[in-house]
């Protein structure tokens, strides 16, 4: 299966109210992926984005961003961890064990680990603006599963 799993930070930059000014290249790149049908999300990314918007809404902000996010989610395939008999959970467990067995141990945020495991389990590549995450996956010998994107 081809395509990219967009990391939370990529979508966050894409739906930002000032994306046209702050991230024009990223905006164009994601737009092309959406048009080609090659953009996907992990269910964990949807969770991270929605929880952030709920905080904004609690402060009376983020209504336009919330609408933009929901339209974005409807335009992509969302990949879950439970499909395929839970294979993605097995990949996540192996990835977690690999981080602990590495010398020195590598720490991944739980959400990052689950998003990366989703991409790997579905045979896709993770597109992220988080250089540290890309470096850690590289250190684990998983560089072929990640693309480093710039926010711009």
Q: Total number of helical segments?
A: 8
- List the uncertain runs: none
Distance between the termini: 28 Å
What would the average pLDDT be, to the nearest integer? 95
% residues in beta strands: 5-15%
* Biggest β-sheet: strands ordered side by side in the sheet: 3-2-1-4-5
What is the fourth-level CATH superfamily?
5'-nuclease
CATH topology type: Rossmann fold
Give the assembly state of these chains. Answer: single chain
Question: How would you characterize the largest beta sheet?
Answer: 5 strands, parallel
Helix content: 55-70%
- What is the number of independent domains? 1
> What is the highest CATH level, the class?
Alpha Beta
The count of DSSP E runs of length 2 or more, i.e. the number of strands, is: 5
In short:
The protein is of the alpha/beta class and 152 residues long.
Characterise this structure:
There is one protein chain. By secondary structure, the protein is an alpha/beta fold. The protein has one domain: 5'-nuclease (Rossmann fold, 3-Layer(aba) Sandwich), CATH 3.40.50. The protein has helices spanning 8-15, 19-22, 24-36, 43-58, 63-74, 83-101, 110-121, 131-139, and strands spanning 4-6, 39-42, 77-79, 125-128, 146-148. The protein has a 5-stranded parallel beta sheet. β4, α8 and β5 (146-148) form a beta-alpha-beta unit. The longest helix has 19 residues, at 83-101. The two termini are 28 Å apart.
């Amino acid at each position: 299966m081809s395509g990219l799993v967009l990391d939370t930070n990529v979508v966050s930059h894409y739906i930002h109210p000032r994306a046209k000014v702050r991230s024009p290249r990223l905006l164009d790149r994601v737009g092309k992926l959406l048009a080609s049908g090659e953009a996907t999300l992990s269910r964990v990314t949807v969770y991270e984005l929605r929880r952030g918007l709920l905080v904004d809404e609690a402060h009376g902000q983020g209504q336009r961003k919330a609408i933009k996010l929901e339209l974005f989610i409807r335009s992509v395939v969302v990949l879950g961890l439970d499909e395929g008999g839970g294979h993605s959970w097995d990949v996540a467990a192996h990835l977690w064990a690999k981080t602990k067995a590495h010398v020195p141990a590598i720490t991944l945020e739980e959400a990052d680990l689950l998003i990366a495991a989703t991409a790997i389990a579905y045979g896709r590549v993770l597109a992220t603006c988080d250089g540290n995450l890309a470096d850690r996956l590289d250190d684990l010998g998983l560089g072929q599963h990640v693309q480093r994107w710039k926010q711009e």
